[in-house]
Write a structure and sequence with these properties.
Stress-induced protein KIN2; LEA1/2/D7/KIN2; about 0% strand
Length: about 70
Amino acid sequence: MSNNSQSMSFNAGQAKGQTQEKASNLMDKASNAAQSAKESLQEGGQQLKQKAQGATEAIKEKTGMNK
């Protein structure tokens, strides 16, 4: 193989490696964003559940159903 051909092959290999690294980084960022969104939704769900339970208890107290 000539030097020019070897150089082109080497550069193509480097470009492929850099592209794979960038894709991997993007996938990691997307995964982290998805995990963060999931945790936020779970926290919001817990808060909503607690508020609903509090409202239920308040209604039971007002109506005398908690006896």
